[in-house]
Amino acid sequence: MTTPLKVALLGCGTVGSDVLRLLEDQSGDLAARIGRPVEVAGVAVRRPDRHPDVPAALLTTDAEALVTRPDVDLVVEVIGGIEPARSLLMAAFEAGKSVVSANKALLADDGSALHAAAAKAGVDLYYEAAVAGAIPLLRPLRESLAGDQLRRVVGIVNGTTNYILSRMAETGHGFTEALAEATELGYAEADPTADVDGFDAAAKAAILASLAFHTEVTAADVYREGISAVTATDVARAAEIGCTVKLLAICERVTADDGDAASDSVAVRVHPAMIPTTHPLAAVGGAFNAVFVEAEAAGQLMFYGQGAGGRPTASAVLGDLVAVARNRVAGVAGPGVTTYAGLPARPIAETPTRYHVSLDVADKPGVLATVAQEFARHGVSIATVRQDGHGDAATLVIVTHSAPDAALSATVAALREMPAVRGVTSILRVEGLS
Amino acid sequence: MTTPLKVALLGCGTVGSDVLRLLEDQSGDLAARIGRPVEVAGVAVRRPDRHPDVPAALLTTDAEALVTRPDVDLVVEVIGGIEPARSLLMAAFEAGKSVVSANKALLADDGSALHAAAAKAGVDLYYEAAVAGAIPLLRPLRESLAGDQLRRVVGIVNGTTNYILSRMAETGHGFTEALAEATELGYAEADPTADVDGFDAAAKAAILASLAFHTEVTAADVYREGISAVTATDVARAAEIGCTVKLLAICERVTADDGDAASDSVAVRVHPAMIPTTHPLAAVGGAFNAVFVEAEAAGQLMFYGQGAGGRPTASAVLGDLVAVARNRVAGVAGPGVTTYAGLPARPIAETPTRYHVSLDVADKPGVLATVAQEFARHGVSIATVRQDGHGDAATLVIVTHSAPDAALSATVAALREMPAVRGVTSILRVEGLS
């Protein structure tokens, strides 16, 4: 009970500082829960002078020396980014250290190699904080639902874009104004690309899909569209059909047409979509995250909480730290991640989706028939149509049934060329309609 | 990889049958996830003739012989109730078997003794299915949040009462009619006592509180009120103040007045309460369950899903089975449950709560002052008052601030004796108001 477990902390930004604070504040509880006290062996940072709150004796710029130090048991990595994080984690595994990471980009890029290195060394790799901040999500997927077959994981996993879309809906503003407001309030970073272009959500989607489907999925396998093209008109059109616009990360197991489970594939995508206001995800506002899970036996589940922020993320890091530390005390490693299913990634073109399309058309006989024929010609079935005339023009609002994405985008391309169509005013995918 | 792990199944009702079915349907996936195939060694039932779907060679009435059979690795208990389940689990632990149980009554009654027996034998005891069916909840509490301090766990954990209260709100019916409807539709059992009187929810609350606060809490420590006294008037009054009535299981860590964490206590209670319709739990309708968790660092979290039913519960059982089986393959036991905190249970009388009280009073000068004085005399602060006159009578609707429950109930008792008070038409606790 008395020999402390020693932790190397890599990075000491917002999350790292809160990890240090919680380790100190809760040292008694952590020791009781783990069976041994936990002690910080060192904190690797680039600029030691910027961390006056951390005891100088702990600070080091030599992260590699820290992770391989013989007295270090566990490594907590909150640097982010691919390198040097990747090399440091590999060095830690080779040196027999277990790792807790919050690094979504790295896990989404190279998760399988990292898991393999951890398994080879007989140590743990946990990363609950990498997806949806404090929400316990990866452990439920890895363990609680390990006896079930997952069908879909649909989540709002990026707080910045959710805030921007929420504000667009509330104010009627366009994307540019809403982004400016988010930046001013600190909800968006100075360079918002990773968030608004969907890179952050795509990395999280890759991690979720890997765990949900026991299949290696990397960020490169994820179809990605951000929210910068979402217009005030899209948001208004969504409201007219009882929907709201959200940036969704969608991981689906798609059953082949022949119904043979062996031909199943995995479709993983991030894009804005209209969802009904009655859908549980529709009410998730501002910087909150929520993830909706559908499993064969468990049915529908939802997980909700804070997706970012120093303390929520640090809570997830410490939860993993307790698990990894308990395993270390017991002299074991926890269950690894399996990718035995090896399901192929289905390209977006072949992925079944539904579209909402708003058109300005000439209000004269035969236009609706011509438009409807164009959908039919591409094998796309129409679910609902609303036509509103105004003078010699009319607005057509069409929601399709599910069809391969390529057929839908080809239909829209063809509509744009039709003389009777004066403009395509809004196109967005639709999710969650029954 | 080839030697199968052998599972003894105790009980083969709704959940047990679905466990058998899922074990068969997913045998390939389970083997890949565990690292070894899983095989059913036997199924203990009272009446073998009632299970024509189970191969006769597997059926036995001798549950004790089954759990101690040398070839059995894991025991799944879905009998329910205290005995013989308790003795069978103890026998299983003594024989070195790990156990997965769905038995809330037993875990709430004697969880510590069972955990101690499992720890002594170096085997696992998991019971995710005992609370909130398919919702991954106990594992997040045990593990994901193990690095945090939990403040509150508030849940809708009984589908039958939630269905009844939802129907009362929708139809304006009283408890008796709504119960009759629930019974007819199969949402309530022929003897609905365990559900409507809150015993089921109290057992779950005890389990949640034990895990959340690292403290031994049994069903006997839980204050319990069912929903049979909830009237149509209560439900209508709730709607008038923007609330809805739910049966809540509430587990709180109460900080002592001196602010010393060492004097903290745990208050665990089950009772109907008004909650604002804007609260995340308010929208949880019908037979769904949801649990709201507040932690120091993680902030607010919510878990939502199906709380009962054969397949959802079987999914939770199988998730535990995979965890226990993986540990068995690795030759280890997972982390046990700690009760190191040993926080005392706070009696309901000393637990801070808020009340809603509706009174019919004589509409004459001084009545409001007299009523208000009665609250003040008991040290209860009033948050809001609404007075509506009608003829010579008036309705007073009062919502209090937080005060010890004993002070509130003493206030209500005193109000009933006041000549100016013609009747107390509705009293319910209020939760979730800011």
From TrEMBL, chains A, B:
Reactions performed catalytically: L-homoserine + NAD(+) = L-aspartate 4-semialdehyde + NADH + H(+); L-homoserine + NADP(+) = L-aspartate 4-semialdehyde + NADPH + H(+)
Highest taxon, organism lineage: Bacteria
Functional pathway: Amino-acid biosynthesis; L-threonine biosynthesis; L-threonine from L-aspartate: step 3/5; Amino-acid biosynthesis; L-methionine biosynthesis via de novo pathway; L-homoserine from L-aspartate: step 3/3
GO molecular function, one term: homoserine dehydrogenase activity
GO biological process: methionine biosynthetic process; threonine biosynthetic process
Domain ACT, chain residue ranges per copy: 356-429
Key words of the record: Amino-acid biosynthesis, Metal-binding, Methionine biosynthesis, NAD, NADP, Oxidoreductase, Sodium, Threonine biosynthesis
Sequence positions that bind NADPH: 104
InterPro entries: ACT-like_dom_sf (IPR045865), ACT_dom (IPR002912), Asp/hSer_DH_NAD-bd (IPR005106), HDH (IPR016204), HDH_cat (IPR001342), HDH_CS (IPR019811), NAD(P)-bd_dom_sf (IPR036291)
EC number: 1.1.1.3
Active site, renumbered: 204
UniProt cofactor(s): a metal cation
EC top class named in words: oxidoreductase
Binding site for NADP(+): 10-17
Sites where the protein binds L-homoserine: 189
PANTHER family per UniProt: HOMOSERINE DEHYDROGENASE
Similarity section: Belongs to the homoserine dehydrogenase family.
Stated role: Catalyzes the conversion of L-aspartate-beta-semialdehyde (L-Asa) to L-homoserine (L-Hse), the third step in the biosynthesis of threonine and methionine from aspartate.
NCBIfam families to which the protein is assigned, alphabetical: PRK06349.1
Protein name stated in the entry: Homoserine dehydrogenase
